[in-house]
Design brief:
Order of helices and strands: EHEEHEHHHEEEHEEEEEHEEHHEHEEH
CATH architecture of the largest domain: 2-Layer Sandwich
Oligomer: single chain
Number of strands: 17
Keywords: ATP-binding, Decarboxylase, Ligase, Lyase, Nucleotide-binding, Purine biosynthesis
Family: Belongs to the PurK/PurT family.
Number of domains: 3
Pathway: Purine metabolism; IMP biosynthesis via de novo pathway; 5-amino-1-(5-phospho-D-ribosyl)imidazole-4-carboxylate from 5-amino-1-(5-phospho-D-ribosyl)imidazole (N5-CAIR route): step 1/2
Largest sheet: 9 strands, antiparallel
CATH superfamily of the largest domain: ATP-grasp fold, B domain
Radius of gyration: 21 Å
Distance between the termini: 50 Å
Organism: Planktothrix tepida PCC 9214
InterPro entries: ATP-grasp (IPR011761), ATP-grasp_carboxylate-amine (IPR003135), ATP_grasp_subdomain_1 (IPR013815), PreATP-grasp_dom_sf (IPR016185), PurK (IPR005875), PurK_C (IPR040686), PurT/PurK_preATP-grasp (IPR054350), Rudment_hybrid_motif (IPR011054)
CATH topology of the largest domain: D-amino Acid Aminotransferase, Chain A, domain 1
Helix content: 25-40%
């Protein structure tokens, strides 16, 4: 396990920010950049990627191309990340040459592999499901003590349900593992949760931590379909989630914003499922429902600015992902127009030219104003049902 050292703090404001990745997360950073007086420089494979129009200079190259990142660094004061599909060893050589990465690479090295991530969380005392590493040395006879069903995960590169499998028995585990030719994979205890929660939190150059309202995420087939803010949980549960976020960011000594996925059990126990060391789908509601969006907050953190206010500007909100449900080239304008008729609705369309099942094409946030906060969850689900009935009809 790597040992974390104290990072060198740069107190000045950095105005030229490089982003590795040019998808919708970088695109939404781009929407917020001008208001902070910062410029974005993007490394991304395709000229049609969403963030390209907001980029002052675009390096068209694979995300894990360190030569391209070296070119990107020439334009930037600091480089941050839209996703985790990077080559840390190659980037470390650039860091040794003086390139500034936020979050820092030493912290990312503990998180990008899901087994390493859970091992680190356990080491610093955060609650996690039982887990173990499934390795080729175990052979084809699968022995573990986690019971069934059990969760099998790729250690790297899995997202939106990809690389994650709910396994019912030993035979299914063996067959699924064999499909990947027996690489090391994470086995994680299946948690029969009551709710799935998420917390977005940021840490600044000066070590301040700002936490957003805890949200509930509703997943189908390991893909997020809707997010309800705030989650319908008691104060004690919310405080536990906030403490987890603060403990993690301070332990890693990171600069930037993280998304933390949590399980809430029927016994009121919180377990950490996964960490995303970047802006996260569960925080998209903040673009329209918070004083400071998660994207502006991340830019504030990595540029050295003080963190902004994370409070809701409404009673609550619901965010619904607009997922591809067919293979097509379509902008679904008529469906979007119909959804836009719902009061207090904000549609973010990512401008992707190709739809395919499960692909995130955009999202909708609807603000909820009510004096009775006990009704937020009910109202949110009713609105989300209406949006999904339009979108998937």
């Amino acid at each position: 396990m790597n040992t974390l050292s104290t990072p060198t703090i740069q107190p000045q404001t950095l105005t030229k920010i490089g982003v590795i990745g040019g998808g919708q997360l970088a695109w939404m950073m781009g929407m917020e950049a001008a208001s902070l007086g910062v410029s974005l420089f993007v490394q991304t494979p395709h000229s049609t990627d969403p963030a390209v129009p907001f980029s002052s200079e675009t390096i068209l190259a694979a995300i894990d191309d360190p030569t391209a990142t070296a070119k990107l660094a020439k334009y930037c004061d600091v480089i941050t990340f839209e996703n985790e599909f990077v080559d840390l060893n190659a980037l470390s050589k650039l860091e040794e040459q003086g390139v500034c990465f936020r979050p820092r690479l030493q912290a990312l090295s503990l998180l990008l592999d899901k087994y390493d991530q859970l091992s680190y969380l356990e080491k610093i005392g955060l609650p996690v499901p039982a887990f173990q590493l499934l390795t080729p040395e175990n052979g084809k006879i699968i022995n573990h003590n986690l019971g069934y069903p059990v969760v099998l995960k790729a250690c790297r590169y899995g997202y939106d349900g990809q690389g994650t499998f709910i396994i019912k028995n030993a035979e299914e585990l063996s067959k699924t593992w064999a499909k990947f030719n027996y690489p090391p994979m994470l086995l994680q205890q299946f948690v029969p949760f009551e709710r799935e929660l998420a917390v977005i939190a940021a840490r600044s150059v000066t070590g301040d931590v700002a936490v957003y309202p805890i949200v509930e995420t509703v997943q189908k087939n390991q893909v997020c379909h809707r997010v309800i803010a705030p989650a319908n949980i008691n104060k004690s549960i919310a405080e536990q989630a906030e403490t987890i976020a603060t403990t993690l960011l301070n332990s890693l000594q990171v600069i930037g914003l993280f998304g933390i996925e949590l399980f809430l059990t029927s016994e009121g126990e919180i377990l950490v499922n996964e960490i995303a060391p970047r802006t996260h789908n569960s925080g998209h509601f903040s673009l329209d429902a918070c004083e400071t969006s998660q994207f502006k907050q991340h830019l504030r953190a990595v540029s050295g600015l003080p963190l902004g206010n994370t409070a809701l500007n409404c009673s609550g909100a619901v965010m619904v992902n607009l997922l591809g449900f067919e293979t097509a080239n379509c902008d679904y304008l008529e469906k979007r127009k119909k959804i836009a008729e719902i009061p207090n609705t904000f549609i973010r369309w990512y401008g992707k030219t190709e739809s395919r099942p499960g692909r995130k094409l955009g999202h909708v946030t609807v603000l909820i104003q009510t004096e009775n906060k006990e009704n937020i969850e009910e109202k949110a689900n009713k609105i989300a049902d209406e949006i999904e009935s339009i979108w998937y009809s």
